[in-house]
What we know:
The structure is a single chain. The chain has three domains: 3-26 and 256-469, 2-Layer Sandwich (Endonuclease, Chain A), CATH 3.30.870.10; 40-248, 2-Layer Sandwich (Endonuclease, Chain A); 488-528. It contains 13 helices and 22 strands. The chain has helices at residues 49-60, 93-103, 115-135, 210-226, 274-285, 300-311, 329-349, 392-395, 412-431, 435-445, 448-455, 473-481, 489-528, and strands at 3-4, 36-47, 66-71, 108-114, 140-145, 158-161, 165-169, 201-202, 204-209, 252-263, 272-273, 289-293, 297-298, 317-321, 355-361, 369-370, 374-377, 381-385, 389-390, 399-405, 462-465, 468-469. The protein starts with a strand and ends with a helix.
Amino acid sequence: MAVHHTAPPAGAGLRTPEAPIPPETPILVPGKTCWRIARADRLALIVDAAAYFAAAKAAMGLARHRLMMVGWDFDLRIRLEPDREDARQPDMLGRFVQHLVQSRPGLQAFILKWDMAMVKTIAREIVPLLVMQWLTMRRIHFRLDSEHPLDACHHQKLMVIDDALAFCGGIDMTRDRWDTPEHRENDPCRVEPDGTPYEPFHDVAALFDGDAAVAMGDLARRRWRRAGGRRLPPVPPPSGPFPWPDGVAVAMRNVDVAIARTEPDYDGHPLIDEIKELYVAALSAARRTIYLESQYLSSRAIREVLVRRLEEPGGPEVVVVNPQHAEGWLERWSMDAARSQVVGRLRRADRHDRLRLFYPVNAAGTPIYVHAKVMVIDDRLLRLGSSNLNNRSMGFDTECDVAVDAAGQPDEPAVRRAIIAFRNRLLAEHLGVPPEDLAAAIDARGSLVAAIDALRRDEGRSLRPLEVRDLGETEASLVDLQLFNPESRTHRERRLVHAMKKTVTRYYPLVAGLAAGVAVGLALRRRRR
Length: 529
């Protein structure tokens, strides 16, 4: 089995120091690359689920009218702060939601979950949910979202509190998610509800307030209604400033936030592909650096724009952080194979040595699973949310992302600094170095990839070059069909028809021969009778 990896020469990829980009054509365009743009008074950028669960618990504790939880999966048995002996009780997700609703007569909770996620978790969750509804006089409302093609999934990960605070990101409130930025080996808190340990896990989310949270509440209510729930009115605005959860650092203030969606063409509703358009527009606008974190790397649209940018003589540097392998045998067979094709094409296009593809490991060398979905373009644009760099996220599954474009913001320099600081924070976590050391290395070398090359280590906590294998002809043909990674419902149907035609054409002589043999056999049998 052949493997390929990036082995850059010393000093490769040197470029000019990073400097602000002058305003250009807007990247965020409502109706094309996003749904809405609305102002947030405060925005926090949360790294890894230990911080996210703690922030979510603090924010949920502020709810007085409505708590909306929209997700791919929820496990009501997880602890929100397993690393704190003094954690506010109850700490288990299901009991905490039940406690909030029971202790606040005006509070109602709405939980929306992908229907197929329930198939594998029904035994552990449906009974507690029904009990919670009974105990709280039905002020906890639960629905399964099946408003998508049969083999698509509801993948959005949102939480909205009183239409005043909103979370959006890649983190599901379920098992196998909690971890800290240290990603310690054998962390006693990194266990499933039954005590089974799991591997290190990296993810990202955002928390924001203001009109942006109001808009996210509107999106959550629409999805609830689409899934068959009753129409919910907006929550009346608070009489004064809504409190900010304790312990959550604010990264940006007075900033415009865009919300982008993917929704498949289904049941009379048209395709919404704002996220795909956002990716293409942002990657096309990059001047110096493109930084991507994603669970997968198998999108045709992303591949084509990255190939074009890498082939440009003066194009941007591209750094991609993926997990070493996808989770589960089906994902490894489908998504890892598709990634091999994409990586091979990108490396052939990297004639100027500006591409780096990595996976992170902890101090013991154990691979860290990357579940984050992040894009940072220069110091101009930050996008994070639920969408992966695969075809499904571009037009087949339901997704929700948020994005901030520094260009034209009220305090543009501060937003640019915050975007670069967040990118450096993520990279420094993966490299196992302080963020200021990474920033100094970038300034000294004038290049993001040169700084990573200088700081990266082959032992201990760091980034390792991503290796992919060559695909055989049969496996490559199966990947080309994209049956498990369709771009849209119509694309999936065309591929299925194509696969059936191809199979019939290839095996027609065999099928015809078998049919003729059966016909002759039946005829002889009748003659013998």
